[in-house]
Amino acid sequence: MTCTATSEASRRGSDWLSSAGVRPTRQRVALAAMLIGDGQHRHVTAESLFADVQRCGEQVSLATVYNTLRAFCEAGLMQEVLVDGTKSYFDTNAHDHPHFFWEDENRLSDAPADQLTISRLPDAPEGLEIASVDVVIRLRRKS
Known about the structure:
Elements: H1 7-19, H2 26-36, E1 43-44, H3 46-55, H4 62-74, E2 79-83, E3 87-91, E4 99-102, E5 107-110, E6 136-139
Parallel strand pairs: 4-6
Antiparallel strand pairs: 1-3, 2-3, 4-5
Helix pairs in contact: 1-2, 3-4
């Protein structure tokens, strides 16, 4: 991520927040500009985004980064992807799609959705419906 908060990146960030009805505070706009300011999708952890924020000299606490990422998810701007049930990644592409988790690098990336076929899901238990299906394909180097 680039540290230069251009007016274009800030405008993109503000527009992104406005599109979901999220109040554009200074800190939210700064984080949004870092996440989508160049128009590219990102997969970040709260810790990696916090490190980028610190490197760029923004005054945002780790708690604020966590809270902001959760607010972005609740607003539908991002999706949270759990790996191992303990590690959360946040994806700016909020549409359903599969992911690769690169075990050797602790990195998440998009997997080609057009190459994934799920032919059948189990029936949901009585009174429930399937809300979504998360696909994380774990990768590691061959031995």
